[in-house]
Amino acid sequence: MRRVRYPGKNPRAFHLKYKELDPARDPATIQKVLASGKTPAGTHRPIMVTEVLDCLRPSPGETAVDCTLGGGGHAQLILERIRPGGRLVGLDVDPIELPRTEARLRAAGWGEDEFIARQGNFAALPRALAEAGVPAVDIVLADLGVSSMQLDNPARGFTWREPGPLDMRMHPAKGEPASALLARIDEAELERILTENADEPYAELIAQSIKSYKQPIETTNLLERTVRTGLTKAHPKLDKPDVKMSVRRTFQALRIAVNDEFSVLDALLRSLPDVLAPGGRVVFLTFHSGEDRRVKKAFQAGQRAGIYADVAKDVIRSSMAETRENRRSSSAKLRWAIRAT
Which terminus has fewer CB within 10 Å in the chain: N or C? Predict the structure, then answer.
């Protein structure tokens, strides 16, 4: 059988990037992609690793929870530092990526006495810890970004880089996809979602463009084209980067609505005082203002109430070097808090 030829130096389609999708097979390609400041298809690079570890200060024998396990990059670094005697509980709502990450961590030598994997979102953190027999934790990490594995795969519907179904569900078998949400809600509700979930300045115009389109919007590329065309027709002098940013915010706002992300985040913030041990440390990585506002206000209120001994006064951003090497870190904001003793 003839070897499949790699289609050009930089194939655009996700399914054609077989060298990137199989890192062990072609490590040279992986290094080239990383050197260009990009993330290889189907993989995830943990961001702000140094800053996260500096704030969490994991030590041998401690108990940690990674609320968004993703590709397991942060989790593995924490596991290395809480050994011997430590345990980490990893949560992830995604039934596709969780088994893959668990398998990788098991293959790397982390047994069930050190690493516990649980499927579910972090709104149910207290129940997940109770089921794992963990009364309290010393470390909590919540990276609220969408993983590269989800973004890169057009079948998940999180991005318009390649045509795909307009889905956006973190759990593909639960809830309604974004296409169904758009078909169900009216123009006013869509405008509200765009404003509240993404601070979109052209929310009214975008909502009108989407709801007045001649057919149901069921694919990612059709949604992108509808938003882009509506904006450029109404504002022909609008710069292309501004149009692209509005498209990005539209996708963000719908993803948040589909997965009820703000309600889930609020539930986690309420449960933190009950699951953090005295002196426990928590770090959040947020990626847009709606998330950051919630974390900031919850931490400040907790400090005023004596729940937290100290909280971040300002956000911590990725370094210039990391931003150049990993473009997906550019919008990240880190906040931390320490539980009162």
Answer: N
Residue 337 pairs in a beta bridge with 282, 311
Dmax (CA) of the chain:
69
110: confidence class by pLDDT, cuts 50, 70, 90: very high
Half-sphere exposure in the Cβ direction for 182 (13 Å, CA): 29
Rounded to whole angstroms, what are the CA distances from 123 to 107, 250, 261, 270, 286? Answer: 29, 25, 10, 9, 16
Has residue 282 got a pLDDT over 60?
yes
pLDDT at residue 23 greater than cutoff 70 = no
Domain boundaries, the chain: 49-148+282-339, 160-261
Q: What CATH architecture is 49-148+282-339?
A: 3-Layer(aba) Sandwich (3.40)
Using the predicted structure, report yes or no on whether residue 303 has a pLDDT greater than 50: yes
Using alpha carbons only, what angle is made at residue 189 by residues 170 and 241, rounded to the nearest 5 degrees?
70
